[in-house]
Every structure is written in structure tokens, then in C-alpha cells.
Amino acid sequence: MAKKQLYWKGEDELLRTKEFLASQKNEFNEALPLDEVFSENNLGLNANRRDFLKFFGFSVAAVSLAACNSTSVRNVVPYLVKPEEITPGVANYYNSTCGACSTGCGITIKTREGRPIKVDGNALSPVSGGGLCTTGQASILGLYDTERLDGPKKVSNGSTSNIDWATLDTEVSTQLNAIQTAGGKIAIVSGTVHSPSTLAVINDFKTKYTNTTHITYDAMSYSGILIANRDAFGKQVIPSYSFAKSNVVVSFGADFLGTWISPVEFTKAWADRRKVDGISADSKVLKTIIFESNLSLTGTNADYRFPMKSSQEAVYVTSLYNAIAKLAGQPAIQIAQSGELAGDAIKQTATALWKEKGNSMVISGSNDPKIQLVINGINMLLGNYGTTIDLDNHSNQYKGLDTDMVSFTNDLKNGAYAAVLFYNSNPVYSSPASADIIAGLKKTKLSVSFAGTADETAKLCQYIAPDNHYLESWNDAEPKAGLFQLTQPTISPVFTTRQAQESLLTWAGLAAKTADPFANKGIYNQKLSASVYYLYIKSKWAAMGVSGDEAFNKALHDGVHMAPAKAAVVPAMAVSLNAIVSDLQSTIGNSTGIDLVLYQSVSVKDGSLSNNPWIQETPDPMSKVTWDNYVSLPKALAEKEGIKNGDLVNISYDKVSLNGMPVFVQPGQSNGTVGLAVGYGRMGKAGEKGLFESIGKNAYPFLKVQNGTYNTVVNGVKITKIDGNYELAQTQTHHSIEGRDLVRETTLEDIKKNPKAGNDKATPHLYTLWETKAYKKDGAPNHHWAMAIDLNSCTGCSACVVSCSIENNVPVVGRAEVRRRREMHWMRIDRYFTFENRKMVDYTDDLFLSRDYEGKNVTKEKGLEALDNREAQAKGEFTHWENVKVVHQPMMCQHCGQAPCETVCPVLATTHSSEGLNQMTYNRCIGTKYCANNCPYKVRRFNWFRYNDNDKFDFHFNNDLGKMVINPDVTVRTRGVMEKCSMCVQSIQGAKTKAKREKRKLTDGEVKTACQRACPAGAIVFGDVNDPNSEVHKLFKNERSYRILEELNTQTAVKYMVKVRDIENAKA
Amino acid sequence: MVKHLTKRNLKVRAVAFTIVTLLNLSIFSFNGLAQEAKLSAQAAEGEKLFKANCTSCHEMQNKATGPALAGVHNRRSEEWLLKWIRNNEAFRASGDKDAIAIFNEYNKVVMNNFESLTEDQVKSIITYFKEWTPPVKKKVEGGEGAESKTSFYSETTLYILGFLIVILMVVLYILRRTKNSLKKSYEEMSGETEEAAAPNEKMENLKKRINPTIFKMAIGMVVILALASYGFYFGVTEVAVQQGYAPEQPIKYSHKLHAGELQIDCKYCHSTAEKSKQASVPSVNTCMNCHKAVQLRDKYDGEISPEIKKIYAAMDYDAENQKYGDNPKPIKWIRIHNLPDHAFFNHSMHTKGAGVTCQTCHGPIQEMEVVQQYSTLQMGWCINCHRERKIDVENNPYYEELHEKIKAEKNNKNSEYGKYFTKDGKINITPAQNGGLECSKCHY
């Protein structure tokens, strides 16, 4: 029997624990909480038959009475003067720039009746390339956040009072003038600002208040790269990285597909270079090699992933430098602890790089400038500057220098600043020197925050001058040198907020408008006026060469304006690497101590938007944990310390400690390291124990100053198990895949020889119970909607999951409900682990799966001895646990042509359409859940509650403001009905109507599902397979495409494409 | 509170309306006659021309887009008026101070040149101005009080009461029968006649013979069954069905006048019906397009029509000074057609896409003084239409492939697509046959 790769979802499934197997036998893995429901209402009852009848009778009576109520009077309130561009019921789209982080992705905002309801990537912007990350997708909810401040505030003695803008302006200006006269110092602390106009505003402010310093502070900075490039090349910039021109990329802990610098841009570029269809024998894909401690998104997608102890990174990079220097005939760096690491990984990597010199990239996620200098050295040896790495058309996305922040913090603590203004930064939360900032703030005469919510820093300032949300703002951006983007408001401010730029201009005395070009433009009683900052931007852009309404409006329409690129110059390195050996040596930690490696999770990122329920409910792509951060432990350490999933530990280093952190044993976590995500542990609304106060714990205090910058690696942390237990809310652990052939993968080598490689399973014999026509011989009469998902492009980033939830009004259910497996996401990304071939223990025999927990054989196959000596195999170093490979598989309703769900519905609430869709009709559904039970793909979701009006689900769906984001084209489902992916049928119907109205054929690509629109990698293609010219038709014919569980003869409308890795074939 | 137009209410209104109308008519006709008698033939000619050319911008007594014209012959010389009316542009260009002044006073709104009018015709208009007298102020009769009463009992309540009465009758009948049969059996058993037993004794016996619990239950069952069957019938046919719903709107806008008599195209106001899923109630500025000038002062004694005033109030428009204020208030129309939220109906699909007229669903809207819901808007009603109408596959390229498939099987009437050919060789395919009854066409 052929050996087959074993895929598994979680530790339980791999080890076939008794509990796991027992839970698989039950339909519900826990009893239904009937007693809980009855006792919750203070009825003091235990549910028995009589009570049930009472409740039943009462409900019937109540429902009958309620139905007698005649329909209430509803009003229609039309516009007084309808804006010309608005047609009620038709969406408008505006191009703008995302404000979720400083990456500055170009976005397209969908508005309905003047209300933004969806954000997608703008294909014209090179930064987003048409996709958008989870955080960007979810950031729209920040506009409709009840925690937003409704106007300017004055804070004194810890209490916040309302103040009007005029008073605030007078008070702040008076103070600033007094400080200026007295010669006091003023600081503006901001996140990275790459908006040319905002920078000009700050300069204008500096002109008026001459003693002002602007400090750029990024919570997770890229100071290491900035300083290294400054020292080496005299250019304090993050270079542009060209994945398109590279054939090999080697990363040391840089999660470029998840969080590093510009993940959306990099994901698109990376995926474009991983295409294998019709590949010739001598063409190359982008070989991806990563050395890392935590299992990152990039790690799961890499061809080769080597575990690394991050405190030893200097050793790894110098070894690589030396290995390449040897090949290049250059002198090596003389460092004591050098040698061959991770087997011959470094040597192999050096060879691969040297083969592709000039067409490769080496990057590092370290924030240590000395390590980055070595990385620069490696890239110099490889001649990558000027080809794949460009310092001249550089990135502006992160400009914060930790050194500046460290000295500012000290000065502030010593009372050197008379006034501090915080714009787009929250150092009281994110700085490890938070205590110093709090102390220093008390010594200032004036402190102002521009935060839109009363965040940790704003609460301690004297004034809060709330900035508009980015969807209400005018702004511009220059995320990369020469790439200019505009931000435009798509709604008038929801609250009495004002743009920070306008505030600064007002205080600098520059807010007076000379002429208002819109003053006479309104018709009837419309009163229009141009915002001060809009006029300011326009004048700056005119100076930049975009002058006149036509040119400016063109830029506004496109959202993007590009200046010609500069020629990339090959720089010379001004630093000798041997001169920094002692600095490098100092970064190397004790090899026996445990490393704590802090990281940003893919959706929460630096935590600035972590009160967003959409972000919190998105499962982490690797662990599938929601709503918490946790200490991720390697299996070896967990076994050694006797720690299991869900145990609590105290983790401490020096004076910093976090007590009672939940533990997750993460396959792929490098031995000797533990991971912990920053961005959690934010404080909720002032004075209230808000929901979000309890999400995880703040890990920022662990950041450690090393060679002048904040470093994410802490060597020598102490981990102690404590009593107690905490169940993390994980989404993908409970189902078993029963060894079925769900994911398929192959190697590049094989697919070059045979395009069907990895997909050459014989078509199973198909049976059907039903006498159906199935499909008409030439398909459905008009359309047959279908989807192709390329596992080779999918990185698992989960942007589609969030996009789908927003488009389809999917409710957030919260941590407790996720624990009960009641998450409502219509789409999920299944993540499968498998051991790497090289280190594979004998789990590969598929007979292993054929046993139930009592040890009896459940199939004809004979039992597996491996089960019995599992324990014996499990002992040892657990190096195989470090070396897991991962496959991500997006999973949603497969829209089966012969759907198992349809045949069991007693009320025909789920039926099949002539266009190939599996339709779900909520108003018919009575909630038997038969369909969910019968669904082989487990994609149906049951509404246990009426999430939209239930205050127990206090996320956004239960308040009027949060409801603004609801898509009016999709029904808000009520309690007791089943729901699932509809393939965005509202978009299909919309596009069809448009085509019929315009009397033309529907074109391919006209209908795009929400997941497809979000995907930065372009992994999802939707269309009409009846159309022979459609892309999806071609993909359905592709040799790599397969149907999942094809043997069930469900005739799915979704096909997956085999994943291809650029690795050497396993030796048989 | 919405006033339902019950039949009773309608009658009251109709009577009141007739009385008021008759009264008004008599006064109007008298005034009309009186005024007309005074005009000379030339002035009558002038009046015709005035009404044909000038009234869209001018009124006699009040400012409209242009100045009020009563007494204009006293303010300006005839020569001046002739020049101005026939070509005011050239006149202004010639540098006449008065001409420029009046142009500036009226916000530089350009008046049409009427070179097509002969000098004599213009002179006859001026004669009309000279001979014009203001209409006699009419007395306010009846007013609106007559029709503002609402019925205390709604139709439904009446039905329910009636139904209850029927049930009570039934119960009474059953009780009587029970009583009789009991009496009979008692007589049979005891051999006593009715006359023999004393009334008290008889009652006692009766009580003994009837198990009180069963008796109560029987009555209860009857009541419950009756109510349940009524409830079921009501539930499946009536709940949330608002056919005939005709609430009184905040402005008494008449579709009969606008769409019927004036023949204004539906899409002039409901401009999105062919573009969007919503036909949408027009924004107030649409009303202002016409009603800035059309104020119907002649019908209201020189006052602006009270309904038009409501439009002005919404826009905070000062008609005398033609200025907009800062305090506009949107109009809260009452929604008549209420589809449930899970049903997505797209107007543009039906109007532009399928060529269905507005009246198909909304009824003879051009005859409705007060709009009412014409159709039931139940799903069965939707489906019936989808079963009966025909898709125009021949003239809409969207259906090109379907059309090809059908054409290819023209000679095979029993085939999958050939069956769409009728006997006379025409294609007849209904939306229902093309997936138009599938759930997710309307529910998603």
C-alpha cells in the first residue's frame, strides 16, 4: 500500500486521545444548556417535561398574540435635496487610502446612501494590488464604534467633561503661546506620517511654535532596518523589496506574508511568483526559505522552514554571511559562536542563494541594527542592491526610530517638555517605558491627544481633540517614494470631531479660508463648504504638479498618482562588519535559556484596532485561536514541564511578568522558544468594565532595549505552571478528517514532469441514491456559478473570512460561543499540519486512522501497531514537532450539484437553483439542523441567538450605530435558522439585473464574491463555468483541480487546485 | 395614528366633499362670470396669450420667478414694455438702466425673448393688464373639518366582534340543547314531568348530572377550536396583507391630478425606478422644480395653496422673497408598500429589464386621489405573474445563449428547449420556466 502523508488539525487528532475519539461519536460534544436557559431567567426551574410543556404552551400563545398585531406604520423620508451622485438603492464607490495602519494600502470604499459599508483593495494602487488584509477589512467598523468620542473633551482630575471646539482652541492656543513665549519645548508624538500634506501641516505648526519637535513612534518599529541602512548607506529608509525579480527569498523571522512592512503587497507579489500552470522545465518559482521561532504565516507557506532560536539569530546570519563569503571568495566575519546550524540548512541556503545572486533577497525581522547590518552585508555579497532591493524608490511605511522615542521618554520623564501632542499614537499602552511616560505627562503644562477614542494615553492628557475616522477625512499619503495616494471622506463626520490637521492649522493660526470654492455651488438650500484641510491638500498637490481641478479630480478618482520612478543606484557599504562583531556578540543569548519571541498576530497586529470584534473573532491562521493571546509552547518544553493545552502559566523576565497566561502547544514552535502576541490587553472605555478589557494581556512591557532599539526577543524568561485552567476559544479542533484526502500537494519537480502530479487519484466510482437528472448535459440553461480555489496561492491570511462576514452580515458571537463551536463565519480556513518528510515518524501508515478509541478496528484494514507504541515514539526531542508543514484550505459551502443537505430538509428551505447554487431560504427554515448534520463539509451554521438585538452579544450588531455597517442587500438572519455561504448571490443577482437592464451579456469577472475581492493572492476565482471563455471554466479543466470528497458524488461547484512546493522530492 | 379609509368613513367623506364642492362651485362660477364680463375683446385675447406664455414665471399679484404684473402698465411705459417683452436681452444690452436694474433684482434669471409675438399681440397683453381686476375674496366654507374624523372601530375589530357573537350564539344553542336532552333523560329516568319538579330541584338535579369539569372543558374546546380556525384563516390570508391600505399622507398629493390630468411621466418623480431596486419617493427639490412657480394662488384667493405651502415649509422656502432658510424639515411620508425585509424586489429589473408598466402592480395610479396598495404583495401574487409573463429572449442579448438553444430545437417540440415553441412558431418562455421561482432569486 502506498504510503500517504498524514494531515491533522490539532494535537488531539494526531494523538487520537480517548477524549477526542469519544467526542467524535456524539452529534453535540456537550449537552444542550437547557437548564442554563431556564435558570437564567430566574425561573428557578429544572427543565422537566411539565416545564417544557408550559414554556411550549406559553410560547405558542405569545407568538399567536404577537402575530395579531397589525403592521406598524412605516415612514419614507426622502432627501430634501438629493445629491446628484446618489441613487437610493445603488452603491457608489470611492477610491481612498486605508487608515488601519501606516502601510497605506489603496482602497475602494463602497457606500450606500452616503454610508460606507465595505472596504476593498484598489487594484490601481501598487501597495494593495486589489486585495486587503483582515485588519483593513475590519477597520470600517471603527467608524461606527460606540466607544468613539462624540466631541472634544477636557480631562481634569481623571474626569472627562465636554467642551466645545472654540473653547478648546482658545485654551490650547493660549497655553501654546504662553509656552512659546517662555521658551518651553513642545513635542508632537505621532505614528509614522507619510502624508506630504500632514508633514507640511506639522512644519507650519513648527514655524509658529519654533520649539516643537516631531517624534515618530511606531509601536512595532523597523528601527533596525532604518539605522542599519543609515549607517551602511547613509539612507535612513526601508528599501523596496521586489519579489517579482527574485527567485529565492530567505527570511530570518520576517513574516512578510502576515505582518512585515507591507504584507498585502508582498502577498500579491509572492503569489504571482508561485504560479505553476504551464510551467516549463527551466522556469523558476520564488523559492521561499525561512528561519524562525514562532510558526508564522510565512513559515506555513515556505518551501523550507527551519526552526531557529531567535536569540541566536546573530549566529545564524553570520554563518550565512560566512558561507556566502566563502563562495564569493570574500573574508569571513570573525565571530566566536559560528558554525553550521540547523543541520546543513545554512549551507544549503547559501548554495541556493549563490545560484541566484542578483535575483534573491535576504531579509530579517529583527529590530537589531547590527543584525540588519549583517543582512545588508549578505545582500551586498549577493549583488541584490539595485535589482531586487531598491533604496532609492524606498518605502515610507514605517519611519519611527526607537532611539528617538527612548530619548524622548527620558526627556519627558525629566520634565523637559512643556507640551505634548499625541497624534495617532498610544505610547502609554504600547511603550515598555509606559510608567516613565505617565510620570512625565504629569510634569507637562499642556497635553493633548487627537485620539478618536479615550485610549490609554488620551485618558491621561488634559485635552482630547478627537480626530475624524479615516473614512471621514481628507488626507494624502506617500507610502512609497513617488507613489502618492489620496484619502477622501465618504461620510460627513458622525460625531463632532475634527481632523487633527485642521486642529493643528487652527492652533497655528492658519485655518482661515481665503475663498471657498464651494460656497455658491449648492442648489436650493444646500450649503456647501470646502474643508480647510482639503484646500490645503489641493494647494500642496498643485505645487507637486497636480494642479487644476481636472488633474486633481483624476487623482482623486483613481486614488493614486504616480511620479516616475528613480533609477536605483547600487550603493557601497560604509561599515565593516568585523567592526561590529562585539555588538553582535552581545545580542547572542544563553543557548539554554528560553527565548520569548514577541510577534504581531495577523489580524490584531500592533493592537491599535484591537477593540474591533471582527478582528478578534478572526481565528489566528496558525493556532485557530480567537479572542485571546496565549503563550505558544513547543511540544518538547510542554512535555518537559508537564504543561498541556489550556493550562495557565506565569511568564516573567527581569521585573516584567504576566501571570495566568493560557498556554497553547503550537506545532512548529522552535524548541527553546515561546511565542506571545502583542496588541492584546487594551483597556476599554474609561470607568467601565467594558467587554474589551478582558481580551488577552499586554505583552509590550517585555520589549527590551538592545543596541538602542526595542527588541522583540527576550532570552532567559521564566515559565512556571500555576493551578487553574483556561479554555482558549479555538475554531478548528473538534472535527476529525478521518484520514480523508482533503488537501493535495506535490512538488515543483513532479509537476514539471507531470501536470497531474499529486492529483492522479483514480476517479472514484460514483453512486447515487436518487434518480435525478443531476445536470442537464450542457449544464444549467443560463449560468452555472462555480469557484476555483488555488491552494498554491492561498496563504491562509484570512482576509476572505472577514470580508465575507462584512458583506453577508455575519454576526460576531464572542469567545464563549466560539468555545461552544457556534461561530457563525460562513467561510473558514482549515489548517492542516503534517510532519515534514525528513523527520517523519511512522505516522504515515493510513491504517493508523482505522481504529476507534477502544482499539477495535472500524474498517477492514488491520490495526496499527503505531498506536500502541505511540508513547514510546513521542519521547525524545520532539524535533518532528518543530518541523511541521502546513496547508491552508479555505472552506465554505461547496454548492453541491447533488447536495446531501437538500434531500433531508423537511420544509424545502434549502433547494437547488438552475444556476448551480445551493439556496438557503431563511424564512422557510424551521431549524431542524438536519442539513448541518448531513453536510459532509460542515459548513452550515445555526443561529442559536438573535445576535442583532441581543445585548448579551454586545459587539456592534446590537446598537444603532454598529448596525450602520449592515449590508442592506442581505437579510439579517434571526434566531433558529440555518445559514451558510450563498456565493454572494446578492452580487450575482445585482450583476444579472444590470446586464438584463442594459440588454447585454454578462461578462466574466463582473460578479466577484466578497472573498475573491479580498484575497491579496488572487487565490479565489469565481465565475460561470457555462461560459467557455471564463477563467473559472479554464481552471476547472486544469490538471491540478480536484473536488473535495469527490467519492461522495456531491458534484460540488467548488474545485481546489493542488498545492505545489519547491522542495526536493522525498527519498523513497 | 393612521386613518384607515373604512367604507363608513368614505361615505362620510363623500357626502361632506359633495356639499363643500357644490358650495364652492356656485361661488366660483358666479365670480368667474362677473370678471369675464368686464374684459374687452382685446384684453380677452391678451389673457389667452398671457396664460400661454407668461404664467410659468409670472403671476398678477405676487412675485414668482419674475415680478408681479398687476399694475405694470403704470410702472413702465408701453414702449418700454414692448421692447422688454420682445427682446429683453438686446434691450438690456442697449444699456437701459431700468432693464438692467430689474434683471439684477431678480437674481439675473434670464427671461425668454418673445420675438414671435407681434407688437399687437404684446399690446393686447398690456390691455389685459390694464383691464385686470383682482378676484373677489371668497369666504371660507366648510373647511377641512368635515373629513378629519376617524373611525373608532377598525374593520378588523368589527369582524372579530361579529365572530364572537356567532360563537356565543353557538354556545348558547349547545347549552340549550344540552339542557333539553338532559331534561328529557331526567324525565325518562324519574318518570316525572317538568311541571312536577320544582324549579330549584330541577337545577340541583341538573348540576348533579353534569360533570362540571367536562362541561367547562367542552365549552373551552369549542371556543378554542373556533378561535383557532379563525386565527388560521386570518393568519394565512390576512396577516400583514395590506391590500387597500391608503393612509392619509402628510401632504395631500394627488396622483390623479399629476399623473392623470397633467400626464406627468411617473419617472419624472420616481426617477430611480429604472435604475435601482427602489423606485424611491422623490426628494423635495423635485417638487420645487415646478412648485416654485406653480402656487395655485388663483384657486386660493391669492394665497398659496396650503398643500404647496407644506412643500415650502419642508424646504424652509420664503416664497415672497424667494429665499431659502436654514431650518428645512424633511417630509415624513407614510410608506404604503411594505415588503418583508427578506424579500428583495428590484424595480429596475421589472421596469427596464422586463418592461412591466407601473400600473401592473400599482394599479390605476393615475386615477387615485389618495394612493392605496393595489396588489396583495403576497408571494403567491409574485409567483402568478412569473408564471404568466413571457421573457423576451429574442430582443435581449442577455438571453442570447438561451435563445440559441431554443432555436436549435425548434423542430423537436418535446425536447428540453423545443417545448418553448408555441403552435404558431413563437417562443413562449416564462420567468418560472427560466428559474424565476427559485428561492434565491428574491431571498438572500
Describe it.
The complex is a heterodimer of chains A (1068) and B (444). Chain A is an alpha/beta fold and 1068 residues long. Chain A is 27% helix and 19% strand. In chain A, the strands form 14 sheets. In chain A, strands 6-5-17-16-15-7-8 form a seven-stranded mixed sheet, with helices on both faces. In chain A, strands 12-11-10-13 form a four-stranded parallel sheet. In chain A, strands 23-25-24-30 form a four-stranded mixed sheet. In chain A, helix 11 (313-328) crosses helix 12 (345-355). Residues 686-692 and 837-874 of chain A have low confidence and may be disordered. In chain B, strand 1 and strand 2 form a beta hairpin. The longest helix of chain B has 36 residues, at 155-190. Residues 1-37 and 138-153 of chain B have low confidence and may be disordered. At the A-B interface, helix 4, strand 1 and helix 31 of A face helix 12, strand 3, helix 14 and helix 17 of B.
